[in-house]
Amino acid sequence: MIKLGIIGTSWITAMFLDAAVQTKAYELTTVYSRSQEKGQKFLSSLAFNTENVDVVTTLSDLYQNVDAVYIASPNALHFEQAKVAIQSGVHAIVEKPLFSNPAEFKQIENLLATHPDVLLFEAARHVHQPNFKLIQSIVKKMPKLQGATLVYQKYSSRYDAYLAGEEPNVLTKKYSAGALYDLGVYPIYAALAIYGAPNAVQYLPTLLRNGVDGNGVANLFYSGFNVTVIFGKTSNSYLSSEFYGLKDTISVSNIAELESVIYHDSAGQVNSVGAKPENNPMVREAQDFANIINDPIENHAEYNQWLQLAKQVNQTLFDLRQSAEIEFPADIKE
């Protein structure tokens, strides 16, 4: 069993823990929280036995009794928390986006080189889903690629607080947040996983009063085609995402959730080809990470592929921000 620690006590952490329990590959041993009370309250909300789980309030205590840590803190904190994990010999599973910029990624890459037995994962759950792998396989068979339109626009549960004058973590540059780094990362990840890194990018954001992007349109330019990405946190969209061949098209209900995949073939036939997703969409990624942790030599090639994809996504997100002149405090190093 992989002894697991967690940083972050939000709904997404609870979802990952549920997935980890379902794989039977992990054992939750330690919860890091800023206060004992908050940590204990989170444990009491979980649907499995947490009697032997410790709550700690320092990272040094967290890393004493775990093999891996799941990090789901605000984006700007990922770098330092993953850094300490790697230095402590602990595998790091970090919620997307992995880091704020390529400079942070490079530092962690160098650190991993000095700790060859430690693994780093970006928790991009959708690319581990069977329906996503199905999309990849269909695109590979298309005789001609003509790009895609990918949409993920969802009203943020914290936007009302923002409108009331607050500055939630997910809507502030202080924590390397905003539409691109919170929701846009899903379709950007999908595009790069399928088409590779783009030749050039452009981001056209709608900025809120504090300079953070509330929504926007990103263009990824490839040789012979483009990918248009539409995302935001200030309204809801019910548009499907589409991948274009010549006469054939793949239509996806939601590029992050992947509830359904429809293939319109070149003869005009409509085929429902996707499988019904699991109730918890994080089970597949949790199992994939466990497989590599338990047998890193056998799964070395796949691990490196994921890490390189994470690096490309990190660079692309940064390049998109640069094109829109959006700067995070994490970009400024003394």
UniProtKB/TrEMBL annotation:
Taxonomic superkingdom: Bacteria
Single GO MF descriptor: nucleotide binding
Domain Gfo/Idh/MocA-like oxidoreductase N-terminal span(s) in chain numbering: 2-119
PANTHER family: PTHR43054, SCYLLO-INOSITOL 2-DEHYDROGENASE (NADP(+)) IOLU
Protein name: Gfo/Idh/MocA family oxidoreductase
